Amino acid sequence: MSIGYFVRYEGQSQEPERFIDYYMNTHGTFMKAYPGIRSAIVHLPVEGWHDPLKINPGSSFMLGEFTFDSVEALNAALASEARIRAREDAGRFPHFEGKVTHQAFKKHILF
């Protein structure tokens, strides 16, 4: 079992391309230094998809997914100097208006 740590951005940036570029090419280097991190994935919304059934399509601007081997590994990363530097860097992001949430999940592979 592995742990997925998700950072969800719900809202908008006045400069969405600049925000995403900064997150992926600058902020990502800070997160890469987290001890025990196995992978980092940035999910961006897809335009033009259609579900014929009535659903709530969501409103996320971006979703970051970070994988660790265990809760202990995640906790060590969250308490690390690398995390402190990443949080300091978050203050340099291009403007974002909205809600940002952080949540950890146990990963269970269905197939």
What do these coordinates show?
It is built from three helices and four strands. The protein is α+β, with helices and mostly antiparallel strands. A four-stranded antiparallel beta sheet has the order 2-3-1-4.
Feature tags:
32% helix, single chain, 3 helices, 4-stranded antiparallel sheet, alpha+beta, 111 residues
Regions with pLDDT < 50 over 5+ consecutive residues? none
**Beta-strand fraction estimate:** 25-35%
The ordered string of helix (H) and strand (E) elements is EHEEHHE
Write down the oligomeric state: single chain
Q: What's the helix count?
A: 3
Broad shape: flat
How do the strands of the widest beta sheet line up side by side?
Answer: 2-3-1-4
The biggest beta sheet is recorded as: 4 strands, antiparallel
Computed CA radius of gyration, to the nearest angstrom: 15 Å
Roughly how much helix do the residues carry, as a percent range?
25-40%
The average pLDDT score comes to: 96
Task: For the record, give the distance between the C-alpha atoms at the N and C termini, rounded to a whole number.
Answer: 14 Å
Structural class: alpha+beta
Number of strand segments: 4
